[in-house]
Design the sequence.
């Protein structure tokens, strides 16, 4: 039942104090953490969790649950306290091991570690934007299965979140799309890490959000009735996203440290802890949960279980009434990809050669036809990235059936919204823009990797060879920079077959993001051989095998430079060399292959050369100290691509000459 009736003021006070002291005690035990937020926001969180949040702690993945995000992840102990009291699989012992090795209570919440945590947060602003992605996904799910779902996205956000640029972008989009299922409670304490917000932040937040199409209202963040009334108003409508500015006192209850930045990020310390216990009438025993508090939260959990059971019945009836939707629902719920996706994509590779953005576009259309989960969009470059899904409308306010998202020119939000959509479930989102602008998405890509999210990032115009737009737009370091993020798969396919392997891998990967790095310019046709697509799927493979004995040199290349390597091999072989060309569309997958395969592709003791139109540093590990790494280690220039190729020594004849000289020891 929502809202659930209020507990007595005494019981409510007891619950709030329990949350406060679980946080204080855990932070004291760890001698590290952030007590200010849990103390200041315990009231607003308690009212939300005990009366409004629709969830069942016994099933953290129930599709029709409300999502709750703690965007200021530094307040993690508040969330762990709520999860523990609510009955998630997070025993008190885990709270006692806050911030310790191997615990489920890391310093900042991590979605893949802790049941009930919906999103990894810590970098301020990201959670705010992730929630917008979740609310968008919820609208899109509701449009596909009308009447099946009734959940909302709630988040606690903080001064830092409201200040961060990514949140401006996301808020703007949320208002534009009229995401009325989004309700943010702003812990408006006017204090941040170093001091008061008045040092750096003075805009009228209400006006700002209202102008972006939100409902915004101010309440006393310690007044339970006022909070409940504001929450009730928010859920009574579905017209606009809501921001509730809950005025709070950071460190509420700590007599000498509250309302000061000193309580933001350090343990209270022995004497202030004792003073806080005294002020709030709390005993000396640590990690206490009074029976009445346990019983109160258990009753809420029971209501959650009842709601979930009722929804399961509703779900079954819904499918009886809509049998034609069952298959799509299952495919989306489980984000199913066809077992033989690679074969299907290989069969769809265009015969004519093209830029890899064009080839990948054809294959993406095939994936979209096979996987209803695939949705995505671009930051106003769809005409260039060629990623819009054909025959599907654009998502607009009130029209969420389409599969094409218009993020506007908001790369930061695009990355973070995609993460939120992936976290929501049902969708495998993709984003698209130029590779240079991956810098604007890097925080989100890093979090997608850490959180093991199935997101596909399409990046086109991948090197100096985009030409005339010049060095502001020409990627030099970006491919390497993306490879440096752990758990990211970076594909730079060389032709249609490799694009098929790349899309098949991207669309089926479920434990991390995939980057598809594509050219603006046409690539060369490559020599065909049996099973090349399957070999490309291994991340690196022998594209041209040497003849007449062991290889004298191996040339490694990616993307548009594979054609150069093939040209150089041809020329050098005519001179009596025995050149092997290894195409490396995805380094990370090659490293995951068994040792025997890697040794077979890259035999020990053979000299190596790499060619990639970007920074060479990473390649030095492949070619060794006695190898040759050809690339671009400086910013590019505004000129036609063929001129840049001449100037930078990246033509087939220049590569041939440089490898020849290298082999001669010059
Ligand atoms: C992107 C980013 N920048 C900086 C930080 C470091 N940091 C953590 S908390 C914090 C201050 C946050 O203030 P606020 O959001 O108001 O939280 P409160 O102090 O009220 O708990 C800062 C600067 C961060 N976590 N993320
Ligand atoms: Mg603050």
Sequence:
């Amino acid at each position: 039942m929502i809202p659930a009736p209020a507990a007595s003021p005494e019981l409510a006070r007891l619950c709030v104090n329990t949350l406060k002291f679980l946080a204080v005690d855990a932070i004291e035990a760890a001698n590290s953490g952030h007590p200010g937020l849990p103390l200041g926001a315990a009231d607003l969180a308690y009212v939300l969790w005990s009366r409004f949040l629709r969830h069942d702690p016994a099933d953290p993945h129930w599709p029709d649950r409300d999502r709750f995000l703690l965007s200021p992840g530094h307040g993690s102990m508040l969330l762990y306290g709520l999860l523990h009291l609510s009955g998630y699989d997070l025993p008190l012992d885990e709270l006692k091991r806050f911030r310790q090795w191997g615990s489920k209570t890391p310093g900042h919440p991590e979605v893949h570690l802790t049941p009930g945590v919906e999103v990894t947060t810590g970098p301020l602003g990201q959670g705010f934007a992730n929630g917008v992605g979740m609310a968008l996904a919820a609208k899109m799910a509701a449009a596909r299965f009308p009447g099946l779902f009734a959940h909302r996205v709630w988040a606690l956000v903080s001064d830092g979140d409201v200040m961060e640029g990514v949140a401006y972008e996301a808020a703007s989009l949320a208002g534009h799309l009229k995401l009325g299922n989004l309700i943010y409670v702003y812990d408006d304490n006017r204090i941040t890490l170093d001091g008061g917000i008045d040092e750096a932040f003075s805009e009228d937040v209400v006006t700002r959000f209202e102008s972006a199409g939100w409902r915004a209202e101010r309440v006393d963040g310690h007044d339970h009735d006022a909070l409940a009334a504001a929450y009730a108003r928010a859920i009574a409508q579905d017209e606009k996203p809501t921001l509730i500015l809950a005025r709070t006192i950071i460190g509420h209850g700590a007599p000498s440290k509250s309302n000061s930045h000193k309580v933001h990020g350090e343990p209270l310390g022995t004497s202030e802890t004792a003073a806080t216990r005294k002020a709030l009438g709390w005993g000396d025993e640590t990690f206490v949960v009074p029976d009445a508090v346990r019983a109160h939260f258990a009753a809420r959990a029971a209501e959650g279980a009842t709601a979930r059971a009722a929804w399961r019945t509703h779900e079954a009836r819904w499918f009886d009434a809509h049998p034609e939707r069952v298959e799509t629902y299952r495919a989306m719920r489980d984000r199913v990809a066809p077992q033989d996706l690679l074969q299907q994509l290989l069969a769809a590779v265009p015969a004519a050669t093209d830029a890899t953005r064009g080839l990948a576009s054809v294959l993406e259309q095939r994936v979209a036809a096979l996987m209803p989960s695939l949705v995505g969009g671009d930051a106003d470059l769809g005409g260039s990235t060629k990623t819009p899904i054909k025959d599907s409308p654009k998502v607009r306010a009130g029209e969420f059936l389409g599969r094409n998202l218009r993020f506007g020119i908001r790369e930061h939000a695009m990355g973070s919204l995609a993460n939120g959509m992936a976290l929501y479930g049902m969708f495998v989102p993709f984003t698209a823009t130029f590779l240079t602008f991956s810098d604007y998405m890097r925080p989100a890509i890093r979090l997608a990797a850490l959180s093991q999210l199935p997101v596909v990032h399409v990046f086109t115009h991948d090197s100096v060879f985009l030409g005339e737009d010049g060095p502001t737009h020409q990627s030099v370091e970006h491919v390497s920079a993306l490879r440096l993020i752990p758990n990211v798969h970076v594909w730079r396919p060389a032709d249609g077959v490799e694009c098929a392997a790349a899309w098949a891998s991207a669309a089926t990967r479920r434990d991390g993001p995939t980057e598809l790095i594509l050219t603006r310019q046409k690539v060369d046709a490559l020599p065909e051989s049996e099973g090349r697509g399957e070999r490309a799927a291994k991340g690196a493979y022998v594209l041209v095998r040497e003849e007449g004995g062991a290889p004298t040199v191996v040339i490694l290349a990616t993307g548009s430079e594979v054609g150069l390597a093939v040209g150089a091999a041809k020329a050098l072989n005519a001179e009596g060399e025995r050149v092997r060309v290894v195409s490396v569309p995805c380094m990370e997958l090659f490293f995951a292959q068994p040792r025997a395969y890697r040794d077979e592709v890259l035999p020990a003791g053979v000299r190596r050369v790499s060619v990639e139109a970007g920074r060479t540093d990473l390649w030095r590990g492949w070619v060794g100290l006695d190898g040759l790494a050809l690339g671009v280690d400086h910013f590019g220039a505004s000129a036609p691509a063929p001129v840049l190729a001449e100037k930078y020594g990246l033509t087939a004849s220049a590569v041939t000459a440089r490898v020849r000289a290298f082999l001669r020891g010059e």
User: Anything to note?
Assistant: The first strand starts at residue 67 and ends at 70. The mean pLDDT is 98. The chain is about 45% helix and 10% strand. Residues 36-37, 72, 74-75, 122-124, 158-160, 189, 191-193, 250, 264 surround thiamine diphosphate (ligand 1) (CB under 6 Å).
